[in-house]
Hints:
By secondary structure, the protein is of the alpha/beta class. Helices cover 35% and strands 24% of the residues. The strands form eight sheets. An eight-stranded parallel barrel has the order 1-2-3-25-26-27-28-29, surrounded by seven helices. Helix 8 links the parallel strand 2 (159-163) and strand 3. It is globular and about 105 Å long. 38% of the residues are buried. The model has no long low-confidence stretch (mean pLDDT 92).
Amino acid sequence: MPYSQETLSPLIDKLEAIWQYSQQLTVDRQDLIADMPDTHRDSAINLLHYLGLRHFDIREMQRKLGKLGISRLGKAESHVAASMLAIRDNLLLLSGQEAKYEDPPVSFSQGPELLDAHAADLLGPSPGNRRVRIMVTFPSEAARDPKLVRKMLEAGMNVARINCAHDGPEAWAAMIKHLREAETKTGLSCKVSMDLAGPKLRTGPLEEGPKVRRIKPKKDVYGNVDQPAKVWLAPASVPTTKKGAFHVPLPAEFIAGFKAKDQLYLKDTRGKKRYIQVKKEGKNGWWGTCMATTYLLQGHKIELRRKGDTVDKARIGDIPPVPQFIPISTGDSLRLHLEGKLGEAAQLDEEGRIIRPAHISCAIPELYRDIKVGDPISMDDGKIVGMVIHRDEEELLIQVTEAGPNGSKLRAEKGINLPQTQLDLPGLTKADRKALEFVVQHADVVNMSFVNRTEDVDDLLEALEELGARPDLGIILKIETRNGADTLPHLLLRAMKRYPVGVMIARGDLAIECGWRNLAEVQEEILRVCEAAHVPIVWATQVLENLAKKGLPSRAEITDAAQSQRAECVMLNKGPYIRQTIELLDEILHGMQDFQHKKAPMLPALK
C-alpha cells in the first residue's frame, strides 16, 4: 500500500467529523430552509454546509491533502458537500476501503450553474464577450441627456444604478425613460438598480459661501492665453452638459436679443473690465468665449454691446454658493451636535489660540445615545479620525487624532463612520420608504444600504410586500459596516426568502469600518460566503476612479479591475470620462476571463 493508515485514517476521521457537523447544521436550521423558495433551497443548504466546514480550522488537513495530490478544499464553496464527500471517498479508496458514494445536495456542476442562473436573474444575462457585468452609476445629467445614456449602454453598461440619495422621482423617471429608449434603438438590454440611501450618518450644513463663479481660460507656460474659456450663456435652469464649459446664468428675455459677434461687458468682483464674445446659438442659449480670468458674482450688472453700443442690460442670475469647509488639524477639538445650527470653524484669539472649537451638526439622535466615551469616530472617508472624549444626549466632543499633514477640510454632507459603535437604527428611513414607492414601480433591483441586522432585511421584505412589489424584483444587500460583514450568513439566510438576491461589497465605508489593513481579509470572506450561497457579488467603490474622473487610470487601478473578475458584476461611479472607463473595463474583464474564473486560476497556453 503506497499510503500508510497512519497518514490516511486521521484525515478520514476529520472529514467525517466535519461532514457530520455540517449535516447537523442543516437539521438544526430546518426552520430557515423550509421557508426558502425552491430557487434558493439547495443554495441555503450549501451555505450551511460551508459554515459547518469553516467552523473547523482545516489548514493542517489542507497541507496533508496537498502532499497526497488530493484537492485541499480551497475551491469548494459552490459545492461543499460534493467536495468533502469526494475527498473522503478518495481517501477511503487509498486506504484499501470501499467508498461510500453518497449523493450530495449540490453536485460539482450544479454549484456554478446555480450561481450563474441567480446572477442572470438578478443582473441580466452575461454579455457575449465576458462573464462579469458592468454596473454604472447614473449622473444627474442622465436625466437631461439621452445621448449620454445611449453612449454608456453602447460602451458596455449592463446595469444602470440610480442613487436615491440624489435628484428625485422626476429625474429618476427621465433617466429610466432615456435608458429604455436607448435599449430600443440599440437592441441592447440593461437592468435598472436603485439605491436606497439608508441611515447614513453625515455632517450637517455649513454657513453658505459667496455666490461666485470663476471663468478661467487655458494658458501656456508663459502665462499667455492658449485657448479661450468656453462659456454657455443660458438661464440658470439650462445648465451645460459640455465638459469644460462655464455656465453664465442670464435671464431668458435678455438672451433672446443676442446676435453672433455681440459682446457682453461687465466688471468682475475685482473691478476688472471683462468681455465675453457671443459666438453661436445653441438650444435655449448661446455659446461664447472669454479671453481673461473672470470672477462673476450673482446679481452683478452685465451689458449687451453691439458694434460698441449698449443695446440691453441685465443682472447675472443664480450661481450656486462656493462650498465652505472647516479646517481641521491633528490635536484639534470638534463639537458634533444634534442641534441643526450651521457649522462653523474654530474661533481664535489674536495669538491664534482656540477660544471656541469648531462645530458641525449630525441629525441622528441615536448617535448621541449609543456612542461611548473612548469610541473612535471617522469622517470624510477616513480623512479625519478622532476619539470621543465627552458626550451627552445632544452633543459630542471629539479629539482629532488624525488629519492630513497640512490639515483637512471638513465639508457638509460628509460621511461619519463609527468602527466600534453599534447604533440601533431602523433599516429603512422615512426617505427610503418614500423612494421605495417609486422603486417597486420602475426598477428591476433595489439596493439596501448599511444592512447591519436581520431585522433590517425583515424591514425591507415587509415593505416590499406591503407595496405589492412584483415577485421578481431583486434585492442587493450593501455590506459597508463591520457588523454587516460579521453577520453576513444570517443576513443572507433571511434575504434568501426572496428571489433573486445579491450582495454589494461597498469597499469605501467597509474599509473605514473594518480598518484599511483588514479590508482584503474581510472582502475575501464575503466573496467566499456569497459563493457558498450561490449569491452574485457586485464589486464596488473606486474601480478605475482616476480614469472616470481625470481621464488616466493608475497602475494599481488596472490590477484592481482585473481582480474584480472574481465577482459577477463590477460597479463604476460617475465621472466625465465614464464612457472611456466602461470601454476599458470591458476590455479588462474580457481579457482576464481566460486567466481566472471566480477565484480559480485558469491556465491557457503561454503566448
